[in-house]
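Below is how a single chain appears once it has passed through the pipeline. First comes the sequence as given, then the structure the pipeline wrote out for it. We keep one example in the README because the format questions we get most often are answered faster by looking than by reading.
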Amino acid sequence: MNGTALDDGRPADSVSGHWVDRLAPRPWRPYLRLARIDRPIGWWLLLLPCWWSAALAAIAADQAFPDPWHCLLFLIGAVAMRGAGSTYNDLADRDLDAQVERTRLRPLPSGQVRPRHAALFLVIQALIGLAVLLQFNAEAVIIGLCSLLPVAIYPFMKRVMPLPQAVLGLAFAWGALMGWAAVFARLDPPALLLYAGALCWVIGYDTIYAVQDIEDDEIAGIRSSARLFGRHVRLAVGICYALAAIFVVLAARGAGAGFIGYLGAAAFAGHLAWQVLSLRERDGRGALALFRANRDAGLILFVGFTADALLRNLF
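Resulting structure:
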């Protein structure tokens, strides 16, 4: 097996020493775990395309930096919607999760949270996300609501299609549209190119994530890109990451980015290349570390775009 259950009831891929396990009241802990608060990488990966888009829009609009209010709203919304999405996914997958070592101690398959209580928790988180979304212009609200379609169908795709990561990518990359729409109240080619890049990035990093579960997924009949690509998984991730870098560069060009923006894109591509070279087909622990490293990759690109906007206005 790729994962090992922890004695204190935490899922095997949770972050050790997290405040959820040290400080949160014990009755709250299963719900916080259900929302993945103990695994912040999820909301980081949902948030970063939003921040990329906000920074790219700042470059195109000749602003000195991304709108701080928008960035804060994206942060709150990413945490809330990551929690809602995870809760929904766990409700749909609780029977499958019980068959996988890494996920069998999640709150629903382990019985720590009842399905009806999880459904109520889902509604609360979704309402928080809606309240955040309604702070933006009407065009951004409509675009944001459209993201619910891939979110709704994703949990069921692993049962019927060999590349469910593509559907996950449609949802997790959505923020690449939102930052631009929040500034310009429309979608332009740079935002669409950035979305394409984020989509390829998500497929790549979630394929790395799926490496952890290849053995259990084969037994349970769960489809994943890691199973689909098999011994060619490194090549497949490399292609996804190369496409992500190309689309990001094209988006930067379309927005009128300068040298610093391209430098940030190059550093982002370099980080992705390091991940590909470090990936091993059956190394679940190493795959989890590489997956989590995508927070740093995404922050590198955000800093590059933000620095480009700032320096263009200073000089």
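The chain has 16 helices and no strands.

See the next section for the split statistics.
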